[in-house]
Amino acid sequence: MRVSNISQAKDLLEQHGQRQILAFCDELNDQQQGQLVSQINKLDFNNLDKWINELVLNTPLADIPDDFKPAPYYKATPQENEQKALYDKALKLGRELISGGKVAAFVVAGGQGTRLGFDGPKGNYPVSPVKNKTLFQLFAEQIKANSNRYGVDLAWYIMTSPLNDAQTKEIFKENDYFGLGEDNVFIFQQGTMPNFGFDGKILMADKDKIACSPDGHGGSLKALFDSGAIDHMKARGVEYASYYQVDNPLINIFDPLFVGLHALAEAQMSSKTLIKAYPKEKVGNFCIVDGKMTVIEYSDLPDEHAERKNPDGSLVFELGSIAIHMVSRSFVEKINEKGFALPWHRAEKKIPYIDAQGNKVKPTKPNGVKLESFVFDALPMTTSSIILETLRENEFGPVKNATGIDSAESSRELMIACWAGWLEDAGVKVPRKADGSVDAVIEIAAGFALDADELKSKVNEIPEIKAGDSVYLG
Fold first, then answer.
1. Average of pLDDT values for 399-420?
2. What one-character-per-residue DSSP string does 159-204 give?
3. Which residues pair with 273 in a beta bridge?
4. Domain extents for the chain?
5. Residue 287's beta-bridge partner residues?
6. What is the mean pLDDT of the chain?
7. CATH fold label, 68-400
8. pLDDT 10s digits, 181-211
9. Residue 1: its pLDDT value, please?
10. What SS3 state is found at 323?
11. Which of 169, 311, 385, 444 could cross-link to 293 by cystine, CB 3.0-4.6 Å?
């Protein structure tokens, strides 16, 4: 039901026990009241009471199935002749699809750099070891280098949030779209969900503003459709979107093997995986549940399953989800036309709000609930889905924390280690410390080499690297 004025809004909110949203409406001018009515109309009252009862007032237990098994996957390198022939076929097809402009980059970039102590979109965080390039710049250079390699203008779809949409667009304008051309960059916003107090009441960010948060990376599949991005893809002939998250500078965006295996399987949504470093590593677990590809969160997988081992000592549930997917455009169209909905996940958070007296409060401990959806929950909706192993050192260096594990520092170390490996594969001597770590700061621009094989053709352009050197190849 849509409301057109404050009076109608009062009646609707009364029915759902949310009258506090209008607690200060008498203090608002006509424009502010109109804006608040607009926000109220965006609330999903058909499901609101159900969500509050099931996910806010109660903490749902993890729904772990009785019977599930590890998912099958393709190893990073083929294991026998038959598989080698398949990989060769997939590589050929993947390159053809990329060359034909059938594949686009799709980054989920709705987050801010708050946890990194950085003011602004996380994509604008400077992270490269030598030149301090931002995440956005690293991705743009990789897309540009692939465009040059394949002789086609490759498209880049960037999902922002209301938190950083305007800033992100300004960053791209100021940087002249990083040389990609405005026509090849499509920036759009994800949806939002209201924030709730533990009592189930929707919190207010201000007297005329409902407290909302981005609806999670699962909102990306709906936002692609609602924003017109899918229509834009269709007009360009894009059939596949290479999905990744903004905090992983080591992502291989246009991997022809991944593209080809996905296409050969006529898959709808596929994934890359890492072999877990230890049983309870904080990554989702790829499983088969009732014949469907499924990710079970690390926190939900019982210890007895997480620690189960095969006779050779490897983990039974060894496949970790790292938020790298290949998504078919037709799949996104199909599920949105049916009005799909991913499940919501509950997260207790510190949510700024205004109290009953209209005072702004910045809590020091969790005071409410945010609901978010996860993109991997779309996997059980597929009829075909493949998993390809990637190597941790080649493609996973997330920047999530200010210090420690998955920090900017650890990510830079991983980038240096990756590029040092490329150099050594090409026969270039790289200085190393006694513990085996690289004794130099190294950065290889995508425009210089996209991978180890391309680097081998440029050995003559690489200077001698000495201990303690800072080396940039660009």
1. 93
2. EE-TTTHHHHHHHHHHTGGGGT-GGGEEEEE--EEE-EETTSPBPE
3. 321, 389
4. 6-43, 68-400, 404-474
5. 70, 294
6. 95
7. Spore Coat Polysaccharide Biosynthesis Protein SpsA; Chain A (3.90.550)
8. 999 999 999 999 999 999 999 999 999 999 9
9. 66
10. strand
11. 385
